[in-house]
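Bumping with the actual sequence this time:
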Amino acid sequence: MLDYRLVEAVAAVIREGGFERAARVLHLTQSAVSQRVKALEDQLGTVLVVRATPARATDEGRRLLAHCDKVGLLETDLAAALRPEGASDFPDASDDPHIPHIPWTTLSVAVNADSLATWFPDAVAPFLRTERALLDLSVDDQERTHLLLRDGHVAAAVSTRAAAVQGCRCLPLGRVDYLCLAAPEFAAQWFPAGLTEAALCRAPAVIFNRADEVHHQFLHGLLPTAASFDRIAPSLPLHYIPSSERFVDVVVQGLAYGMIPLPQARHHLSDGRLVNLAPGRAVPIRLFWHCWGLRTRLLDALTHHVVSHAHQVLAQE
């Protein structure tokens, strides 16, 4: 049987990225946290935390962290089942000393930046209003978020991966269309004859980061051959702007062209601040919700809200 005081110390060090921060969160001395981590490592016969800056989990530590989070969700279900009928999830609003304190439960979720900037906050808002839950969001490219789930860092993820991660559920969310857009004056200056190879090699583009493949997917579909893309790819002038909101600002201000999801672009297109450089050539990105296969009330409720809202606001096929 694991001593969960020790497990809690390991989880805090991993989440907070260090022993000092973990000590503040747990209201312990740094020495006490270090002793608890070492005690659990000795008990299990394996290293759980890489002592670095920041501290990080070993493979065994990630598995322990995922186990700890799952136990936490199961305990939340048990606490809810044992509460008196009709008791509120938010008893702290009452001054009645006989009403027990109900702890908050943290759910770690990985989400891509564009979803976070558009539909995801509205999806989780009803869940956060009615559940005693806190979100710990990790933001990564939609092609990589499932890796955080696979490695035990999060309980759920918005991803482009269609196949379920081992031990997890996978539910379709819908499709987001990315459009190649620019400010009208930028289009007139840099693409007077359209998206020719010569113009693409001269005009500055903006992409999110070096893991962002949407721009390259667009060019692969636009150019006549793969050889054409290979020829111009090294010459593409690129800004890297890892913020969905600032990304759009750069395009609206006429500093670059770029691939923008339709939900973010719609009002800029309607008021003429942006134009579509390639009508009919959207890049469809299909999103999926991945979460642990463990069925708990809180994770099921979050899944219900995310999936149902996505089905309302994202394109469905």
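The tokens above came from a reply further down the thread. The first strand starts at residue 49 and ends at 50.
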